[in-house]
Design brief:
487 residues; mainly alpha; two-stranded antiparallel ribbon; 2 strands; 1% strand; globular
């Protein structure tokens, strides 16, 4: 799997431009425009997985009733499945250089791609961007409060739709940093990501060792008994819930993998790089998250499931400030890579004549502010509910995309047909309209994954939303594609 697998030429790109594809963000990337190698993909996700919401999720897993070692194993198993999915769903991007919007067109048709593209690129990306920005702004508020305690009294009792003045100012500052990094583009993001990854692992590995020491040793960590665990959940189902949560956490970047892999120097580079990034990253994350949360719980005598709270308990102000600063950088980087970039690309795909990448970033960030994510976070279960919703929507889309590329196309996409002449409205083209079978399969997948919300007996499908939606959509699309040809 080397560069011979890059199946797009400069002559084809020139032809597609003459057909009305003037926006560079929609065109396939030729070999000379690709720069991401194994190392770039290795650092792409390794840093992003160590973010505040992911540690919050790990804290939630501790009440499922599994022993700490089993939680760690389930996290790694989830990472392996996620790595396989992301690497294989990224093959269309690395082979043909097409972005996610065109990968969607190849699956759902030009008209049909708009709704799943809108859901991933606008609803999910901007919603997740808003939530992460708010969570990050809370870390920033802690830093400012430590350095300038009077800041926390600014505005008195004033609130802006439920948020006080200090929180609002911290949100605006942090939101602005996200906007600036998003506008900087992929070249700067790759360099920033590489440097940040080193800082991330120095911090969290050190915190993991600290957790083992203050917890009385790794044996104490592994034998720790969590109070208030849910005894009604079987160990196997608890395993599946954790695996599903990992898949759902990466559902958005996974489904739009082509936006990242279109820059790959080869298919092998992106598959090896992404695989190592997620698997190695989660092996370390499994150790650090469990060691930090359980070790601090033993040390402080109070259950600690929030990494921000753990850091805030430290006696050393410099250590608190450095750790919080790195957490802020992680959240900004994760937002820029996994949320702002896909949202900008999708806005470009939906409105190619008016929006380019830079404008898409600005619009996405403004919408992320407008949804007032602090309102969404008033419920402590918001992150888990949102993750489950993402899995329910994007799991089925992922299942259809995988079946289409590997079993219908057999990994061969005709770019000449995919980039048909937009100005010739009379020409018949299979990618012009809607792939009805894909839509039916996707809807069936969504219905199954959300069925537990209406029928308690089916709650298992909703608790495993990404997995149930993915399998349902993939199998049903396979049946429909075999027996009912699209008209």
């Amino acid at each position: 799997m080397g560069k011979e697998h890059i199946s797009v030429t400069q002559e084809e790109v020139k032809l597609f431009k003459s057909r009305g594809y003037d926006n560079e963000d929609l065109l396939p990337k030729t070999e000379d425009k690709r720069s991401m190698k194994v190392g770039n993909y290795f650092t792409l996700w390794m840093g992003n997985l160590h973010n505040i919401p992911n540690y919050a999720a790990a804290g939630g897993f501790l009440v499922l009733g599994l022993a700490p070692i089993n939680i760690m194993l389930a996290l790694v198993l989830g990472a392996i499945l996620t790595a396989v999915f992301m690497a294989f769903n990224g093959k269309a991007g690395s082979k043909y250089g097409i972005p996610f919007s065109m990968h969607l067109r190849a699956t759902y048709g030009e008209a049909g791609a708009k709704i799943p593209g809108f859901l991933r690129g606008i609803v999910v990306a901007i919603g997740w961007f808003g939530l992460q920005t708010f969570v990050g702004s809370q870390a920033l508020l802690i830093i400012i409060g430590k350095l300038w305690p009077k800041f926390l009294e600014i505005g008195g009792d004033f609130t802006f739709f439920g948020i006080g003045m200090p929180g609002l100012l911290a949100f605006i500052i942090f939101w602005s940093a996200n906007l600036a990094l998003g506008i900087s583009g992929s070249s700067f993001l790759n360099k920033f990501n590489t440097l940040l990854t080193v800082l991330i692992y120095v911090l969290f590995f050190s915190m993991g060792i600290w957790g083992v020491i203050v917890g009385g040793g790794f044996g104490n960590i592994l034998s720790y008994s969590i109070e208030g665990t849910n005894q009604d959940i079987s160990p196997l189902f608890a395993y599946m819930m954790i695996i599903n949560a990992v898949l759902a956490f990466w559902a958005a970047p996974g489904v739009s993998a082509a936006d990242f892999t279109q820059n790959a120097t080869s298919t092998k580079d992106q598959m090896v790089g992404q695989g190592l990034s997620l698997i190695v990253g989660y092996v370390i994350f499994a150790f650090t998250s469990i060691s930090i949360l359980i070790g601090s719980s033993i040390h402080y005598g109070v259950e600690q499931w929030d990494v921000l709270n753990v850091i805030n308990h430290w006696d050393s102000l410099p250590a608190i400030l450095i750790a919080m600063l790195i957490l802020l950088l992680i959240t900004v980087n994760s937002n820029a890579t996994a949320n702002i970039t896909p949202a900008a690309f999708q806005l470009t795909a939906l409105f190619p004549k008016w929006i380019n990448y830079r404008r898409g970033v600005i619009i996405a960030c403004l919408l992320g502010f407008a949804i007032m994510p602090w309102k969404l976070m008033e419920n402590p279960d918001s992150i888990y509910t949102f993750l489950n919703g993402i899995g329910a929507i994007l799991g089925p889309v992922s299942g259809v995309m995988i079946y289409q590329y590997f079993f219908v196309f057999k990994q061969e996409i005709n770019l000449n047909e995919l980039y048909y002449d937009m100005k010739d409205t009379k020409a018949i083209n299979k990618f012009r309209g809607i792939n009805k079978n894909a839509y039916i399969a996707t809807i069936l997948g969504v219905l199954v994954s959300l069925s537990g919300n209406l029928i308690p007996t089916f709650s298992i499908f909703t608790d495993l939303s990404w997995i149930s939606g993915f399998i349902t959509a993939l199998v049903s699309y396979g049946i429909l594609a075999k027996f009912f040809a699209n008209k």
